[in-house]
Design a protein that fits this description.
The protein has a four-stranded mixed sheet, covered by helices on one side. The protein has one domain. The protein is of the alpha+beta class. Strand 2 and strand 3 form a beta hairpin.
Length: 80
């Protein structure tokens, strides 16, 4: 599985995160997370949300992440 992160989604301070699956060399989206970053003033809030999202997908649906593609944002890196 792959988490693809698309920053600067729009002018409303939203970030769109996507988890993709792959089967037979074809990729498809499994889950989306739209995060409002204006309210993310508390330290570690983004990391906690992304970690919880991945944990819930694993526990409820058995999704196992094989690798994560992120930019240099430390909150995203810590959530992996």
């Amino acid at each position: 599985m792959l988490i693809q992160i698309i920053d600067n989604t729009n002018s409303k301070h939203l970030e769109l995160y996507t988890i993709f699956g792959e089967y037979n060399n074809v990729g498809f989206p499994l889950s989306y997370c739209l995060l409002l970053t204006v309210a993310a003033t508390k330290i570690g809030k983004r990391t906690k949300v992304l970690t919880t999202w991945g944990t819930v997908l694993h526990e409820k649906y058995g999704v196992i992440l094989h690798f994560v593609h992120v930019n240099k944002d430390m909150a995203k890196i810590r959530s992996c």
